Amino acid sequence: MLYLLEPDSPGPAWEPFAGVRPVAELRAGVWRIRERWEAALRMDAAAIVGGTATGFLEGDEPPCQALGEIRGPGVVARSEFAPSGAAPEVTGETRRLTAQGKTVAWILPPGATWHRGDETGAAVNIEGLHLLGAYHLLTALEQFLPADCLDFTAGDRDPLPEGSIVIGDPGLVVLRGAVVEPGVVFDVRSGTVVLDAGVEVRHGTRLEGPLYAGEHTRLLGGFLRNSAFGPWCVVRGEVASSVFIGFANKGHDGFVGHSILGHWVNLGAGTTTSNLKNTYGEVRLGVGGSSIPTGRLNVGTLFGDHAKTAIGTMLPTGTVIGAGANVFGESQVPKYVPAFSWGSAGVERLDEEGFLKIAGRVMPRRQVEVTPERLASLRATYHRLAGKA
Asked: What distance in Å separates the CA atoms of residue 171 and residue 29, rounded to the nearest whole number?
């Protein structure tokens, strides 16, 4: 049994996803953190435990529940650590997995009870990345995406359609049930391009690897590079070094770089992110009253689930847009927009029923039914965040 342990209090560094979705359900490279643990340990997760997203429901994740007693046999693994994918060399005596000297997982023999903070027992090293916050998913993308995409070349694939233009080795284009119009350019000199089942790529699109597009994503034109798009996204324009966790919509021109988009984000036509300061200095995130150093020169915008922008929205370097926020108006967009803000000024708030009504209109557009259980999960999200907004 594999249990993914969430941080008790994710804190400002995990905005705008803290309290919205478990850390384990964020995308680090092609795969979600939970999936990376499942692959490394060769077991399915039984539950995501602890943290501030208890009761979260999306459809394909294990139960998200409060932390209770955990007894072996099993493994308790930290959600803030993303394994590289290589399986650790565990023996029957192994009790901990460590990375850079820090315990990231506990291996419980039959009948044993897990205790938080236990640093005893034989340890084995596991390769991967300690994640310091949501912005660190950009580092995970840089570290994991090339190998994640290359792994797909070992599996089955479809032949390249007639009219495709490939710059580099055609063996690094992996189509798995995608529909590609003539004239699409695949530039694989720097990495593999993977298009999963149901992906549609329109003429006028240039794809530069490494790049992954998940099931039923539509790539409608423009220059897309070094990015991972989860399932059911719509992408157009210029996108660089970004992660679309899933079900996000950027259907028009505009530049998005070094950004993270949560589920159900919708970017209005011409929305553009800045991902580099004029000083070429380190980007710091201002979340509420906190100033968070990222250690990075390139950070665009972090968009929480269900966030939306109006046409022509210009976003400064290192912007954080809270979940459910609607960004519009004449004022300059601040670098932190609280959850459920109604307008760029961040003064008005979307109420609970308004948030649920909009979500109920949007989700069926991607064949997602708004069931009573999903509605309850959305209500719980609103209540968790409303006190911070």
From this structure: 21
For 261-291, the pLDDT digits (tens) are 999 999 999 999 999 999 999 999 999 889 9
Instruction: List the beta bridge partners of residue 167.
Output: 187
pTM of the model: 0.96
Residue 20: strand pairing partners: none
260, pLDDT greater than 70: yes
Structure tokens at 228: 């991972």
Of the listed ranges 52-61, 251-260, 350-359, the one predicted with least confidence: 52-61
Are 12 and 254 in contact, with CB atoms under 8 Å apart? no
Sign of the C-alpha dihedral computed for residues 286, 291, 294 and 298 taken in this order: positive
- Give the whole-angstrom CA distance, residue 304 versus residue 33: 17
* Separate counts of helices (H) and strands (E) for the chain: 4, 36
Which DSSP string do the residues of 95-127 spell out, in sequence order? EEEEETTEEEEEEEPTT-B--TT---SEEEE--
Whether 29 and 78 have beta carbons less than 8 Å apart is answered as: no
Residues pairing with 107 in the sheet: 75
Q: 56-60 long-range CB contacts below 8 Å, 24 or more apart?
A: 56/21, 56/22, 56/25, 56/377, 56/380, 56/381, 57/373, 57/374, 57/376, 57/377, 58/21, 58/25, 58/263, 58/374, 58/377, 59/368, 59/374
